[in-house]
């Protein structure tokens, strides 16, 4: 009983953001939100039931996401029906400093499924459950060995399907966020080697729209091909993996939370740091700033200056003699 109470106290302190030790304070600092988010780590974890195909599928996506990964390929019996155990998955993500999670699971009624979700402020932000329809592993493509997977790809998501509803817009957002790899300010053409294309195969309002994933090898001929050249572009070589999937279930974030998570921090900081216009300041030809300062007139009678004790005594004596002099003046006027 005492151990359970101690655990509850520790969890309560972590939720409130309090820690008693130096190490606990460091852990809480790492868990705090960042103004400029770094590249997102992803937790790859298996549930209690999976097929060999799903195991290879998760391993291929793990290779695409390296090195920002935490890999747990063993079967976890406590994650039976993972959609109801998302709180445990979130705790594992927080413990391993991951803001993404990916898991595969399979049942008799609904086989070959995978789930993809995100965290915000160490809490569940949204998640999406997909059904895997077909899959060809990466090892079946001979050109896959020529690629360096620790490189940032170009991600192309195409199809009017992704513009129809809020759920589909969020699907596009999470797919791009998952496959974009690292966050960088600029990219050189020599480092671009991969093209990821995610497309809706057929247009329509069908809720079970089939989505396809393809990855191609980019060469110098594709990037440096002149626009005026009459020669056709060389065909793209597929490097895998190749798979088709369908959305099965989802839980999107509410509007206000999504706006808070996607706000541009740089613009907000610029607005706050805008300098106010300083009035009555001029700059001469030499670069010196000349300022005009307006000061009220000073009454020198009230101006405070330091005086000695003798001066104060003489001042007091003068005050005493003033009324007597007035009386003498009145007496002389009456005499006349």
TrEMBL record:
Phylogenetic classification of the source organism: Eukaryota, Sar, Alveolata, Apicomplexa, Aconoidasida
Location within or outside the cell: Nucleus, Nucleolus
Cellular-component GO terms for this entry: nucleolus
Biased composition (Basic residues): 304-319
Keyword set, alphabetical order: Nucleus
Region described as Disordered: 304-336
Protein name (database record): Ribosome production factor 2 homolog
Domain Brix: 40-256
Organism whose genome encodes this protein: Plasmodium knowlesi
Family: Belongs to the RPF2 family.
GO molecular function: rRNA binding
Biased composition regions of type Polar residues, renumbered to the chain: 321-336
GO biological process, any: maturation of LSU-rRNA from tricistronic rRNA transcript (SSU-rRNA, 5.8S rRNA, LSU-rRNA)
Pfam families named among the record's database cross-references: Brix (PF04427)
